[in-house]
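Late entry, evening session. Most of the bench is empty. Finally got around to the prediction I had been postponing all week. Sequence below, unchanged from the version circulated by S.P.
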Amino acid sequence: MKKFVSAVVGLTAALALAACGSVESNSNTATTGADAPSSAASAEEWKAPEGLSGSIDYYSANPQGLTDALVEVFQERTGVTVNVFAGTTGDITAKIKAEEANPQADVVYLASWNAASKQAESGALEAYAPENIGDANAGWNASDDTFHGRDGSALALVANTDVVSDIPTDWEDLTDPKYKDQVIMPDPRESGTAADLLAAMVSEWGEDKTWELFDKLFDNGMIVQGANGPALDMVTSGSKGIVFGGVDYSAYSAQSKGEPLEVVIPSSGTTVTPRPVMIMKTTDNLDAAKAFVDFMFSEEAQQISASKNMIPANKNVAPKNGPALADITQISDDWSAISKESKNIREQFADRYLK
């Protein structure tokens, strides 16, 4: 009954969220089998362990197309049923909290390091080092193996070239009067990646420099609205000209569909937010949960992430678009410090600019 209810709730939530544009999606179609990109098809095929059965409940705050593709391959290889609940990081952490008396989730895949850290601090996570983790970016691993970043997204300046003729190259450029009333930023209260960007800036630059930048941006007419998807939609439609801190994979996906977008990694640095996966201690199918996480770090699954415009954790797998992780200047990659700074960043930002 647990699994049946979870599957129904997950499907309903995913459809509702997709309808209102709050599920980040770079494709609604799974990319597997004969339809997979050549890079994914050339990866060594992951071999499932024998004896797996039953089902797992999988909560995912990542692009629907990526979620679908990973689940499809895993189910085919293992015979394990994966019941998906798709939503934002906030939706998922709220659902986990609401289910404390009757835990449902087995595997959770979030879009925020800070949210994963809070789950680990609560004692809710099973320590596990996935197969192939040695090929992954070491800086994206929790020191106690309770969670691991399996891919990431860089925050960029995303400009509509039909609206903006002079493409900016750095955050500070957007304070120029020529971008007056053209800039939109995702709301850090709804977007974990936006909150992480703010936290990285404060952690590395200090409060004075960070808030001085945002004072200028708001004086120049920048608005804050919705999560990542709605902010990008405003620029894609031409209602605004530039997203401050747009997630790169969503922009690349829209660009591939013919939208007039240019994606710029800011010259002074940005954040590449690791998207961590974790196993809940309360899982009732630990073998299948571990196998799913092992699969996620396989070269095959990392190639699927690359095909969906994510930055793979595996250092041997190149992104489909944009620079490799090693070639991106980061404001900070100290995720412990960023997480510490993130605790109050939403409230500080809202108090200063959103009242």
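Two things to note before I forget:
The chain has a mean pLDDT of 88.
The radius of gyration is 20 Å.
Will write this up properly tomorrow.
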